[in-house]
Amino acid sequence: MWDYSETVKEHFFNPRNAGAVADANAIGEVGSLSCGDALRLTLKVDPATDTILEAGFQTFGCGSAIASSSALTEMIKGMSVDEALNVSNQDIADFLEGLPPEKMHCSVMGREALQAAVANYRGEVWKDDHEEGALVCKCFAVDAVMIEDTIRANGLSTVEEVTNYTKAGGGCSACHEPIEEILTKVLAEQGKTFDPTAAPPPPAGKPKLGNLARIRRIENAIEAIRPNLQRDHGDVELVDIDGKNVFVNMTGACSGCQMASTTLEGIQQRIVEDLGEFVRVLPAQAMQTAAASAD
Amino acid sequence: MTQATSGIYLDNNATTMVDPAVVEAMLPYFTEQFGNPSSMHQFGDRVGRALKTARQQVQALLGAELDSEIVFTSCGTESDSTAILSALKAQPERREIITTVVEHPAVLSLCEHLEKEGCTVHYLKVDKKGRIDMQQYLDALSNKVAIVSVMWANNETGTLFPVEEMAELARSAGVMFHTDAVQAVGKVPIDLKRTAIDMLSLSGHKLHAPKGIGVLYLRRGTRFRPLLRGGHQERGRRAGTENSASIVALGKACELALAHMDEEKTQVRKLRDRLEQGILQTVPNCFVTGDPSNRLPNTCNIAFEYIEGEAILLLLNKLGIAASSGSACTSGSLEPSHVMRAMDIPFTAAHGTTRFSLSRYNTVEEIDRVIEAVPPIVAQLRRLSPYWDAAANAPVEEPEAAFQPAYA
């Protein structure tokens, strides 16, 4: 049985805002029938203020799909359309006090329904690049399509590299067999054979990273540092990446700490090492200043 | 007899309650009867005799000619793997396997793995009622085939395959025949000595014995290569010190299953039919999957259209009712059950398939409570469904056209 949080159960057993909003002016329909999760989100938006007055959902799906839909409608009611678009799938999962890795896609579906509904409201066409593969790494919720794409985009050839780029296989390591199988398949397409004994290429001949892989590496580096900060009751979160500038928020005990700038330097050093290129780590408050000086 | 725990347990194809008489029979083998049956002293001898009795009890339930044809293993999956891998090792010149698209993962995943190692696997298709295509079977049989492995009864729908007839056909083609009978043993009468079946797998926990014990029936004279080599246990066909307490338990469970065999096709079947009719009469837009006229007496699999199975199970569970579903979400996979897909059940129904599997411990009161509980649960979820018109209490017109989510 799934390990659902009490909040997930509560929203499943007593869903909020179930059913279609009568005179909706924003409708989003997303999901996949083969996966067994699909959602229609209906919103009533005040055209004068862009405020979401009412939100309703109709969901064909499992317990966490219904709970995610319910949570989403609760979260966005009263928000402006722009504010609502800032709701991430992680926000939905956090609102529900977490989802099992196999079920994170339910929160992704919620966010996408919202994007589709807003596009519908604005008279735009919403297009998604969503392709979901079979879940390979259960520790970090990484699917087969993500692993395949990352291998192709970055010319990866070892399990260790796949772990470095996607996190997949970095936890319990039970998924190393399927990762090897994906490597074997992708390398065969390129006329190469997978060599399980091959050492990862030296970082000196650093590969040119794609945007996604670069972001993910930065995320991984920050993830690796967080436990150290958390031990001192602090924390750090990635806010944005703009070229060479990496913006972070220092939270908990780190926020306002006298050592904050030293900590930032430490984070910067770690990211630079992992990335093999120079970046500047800046507090998120510096975002506007940096943007202005760049112009 | 009443359930040992509270709640209504209708998931007996997943696992069963260990019969109290079985528990009683096995307990001494954890304590005073701790000997190793291979030992030369009285401690071992007493356990050795108990294993002999258990072997005969299994033999009787299966209708095997000899008790030496019974090989104890750790589970149904081990028995399946042993059978298929043995056939390939014993006949290295034969690199083909015949099986079906609706087998249990214990067979399907192994076959997919063997394909990567160079074997050719023929997957027999099924029709909309889950029935096998016998012509496809005959066309695939050849002297290149090492083994045919076909389940006796399907775990999801209960549909029975004509394994006795298929075994005869395999024998005339000179091909070994194995059947995964974990769902059939104890529910339908089996008399192996009158069939051409060479190997059969069974699993203890499906017939009121504990988990962790299985059997491979191995017809005398069948060429065999062990999966586990080591000591001389099971006449060298499955090394490893015997799980004596569980073997004794399985023997007792087989004895009870044989004694209660008539109840399966009378009492259990009657309750199953009562449940099925009760639900079909009160819930709109649902149907029975598989072949209703030819299936296990305890199994009923109903597809509730336009809603999803995990949600159904969670609401049933809240009322203490245990069942199972073929939806993708219950298994964490991306597709609904391969059995439902093989029968071409549409996605909008496949995700809502719910399996109720009974046992001789269920009562008519329990069944009536489930018949009462199901309609409101289905109605509650349909009120949330984009395919359902709550006002009309019917599916929306042309449901598949009315709701077309992106990336479906």
Considering the chains and any ligands shown, give keywords for the structure.
heterodimer; A: 295 residues; alpha+beta; Sufe protein. Chain: A; Arc Repressor Mutant, subunit A; GMP Synthetase, Chain A, domain 3; three-stranded antiparallel beta sheet; 11 helices; 8 strands; 44% helix; globular; B: 408 residues; alpha/beta; Aspartate Aminotransferase, domain 2; Aspartate Aminotransferase, domain 1; seven-stranded mixed beta sheet; four-stranded antiparallel beta sheet; 14 helices
Structural class by SSE content of chain B: alpha/beta
CATH class category name of the largest domain in chain B: Alpha Beta
Q: Whole-Å distance between the termini of chain B?
A: 48 Å
The biggest sheet of chain A amounts to: 3 strands, antiparallel
Low-confidence stretches of chain B: none
Distance between termini of chain A? 54 Å
**Oligomer status:** heterodimer
What do these coordinates show?
The complex is a heterodimer of chains A (295) and B (408). Chain A has helices at residues 6-13, 63-76, 81-85, 89-95, 104-121, 144-154, 159-166, 176-189, 211-231, 260-275, 287-294, and strands spanning 26-32, 37-46, 51-60, 135-137, 142-143, 234-242, 245-252, 280-283. Chain A is 44% helix and 18% strand. Chain A folds into three domains: 6-121, Sufe protein. Chain: A, CATH 3.90.1010; 135-202, Arc Repressor Mutant, subunit A; 211-294, 2-Layer Sandwich (GMP Synthetase, Chain A, domain 3). Chain A starts with 5 loop residues before the first helix and ends with a helix. Chain A contains eleven helices and eight strands. The model of chain A has no long low-confidence stretch (mean pLDDT 86). Chain B folds into two domains: 20-259, Type I PLP-dependent aspartate aminotransferase-like (Major domain) (Aspartate Aminotransferase, domain 2, 3-Layer(aba) Sandwich), CATH 3.40.640.10; 261-397, Aspartate Aminotransferase, domain 1 (Alpha-Beta Complex). Chain B contains 14 helices and 15 strands. In chain B, the strands form four sheets. In chain B, strands 2-8-7-6-5-3-4 form a seven-stranded mixed sheet, sandwiched between helices. In chain B, strands 9-10-13-12 form a four-stranded antiparallel sheet, with helices on one face. Chain B is globular, with a radius of gyration of 22 Å. Chains A and B meet through α1, β1, β2, β3 and α2 of A and α9 and α10 of B.
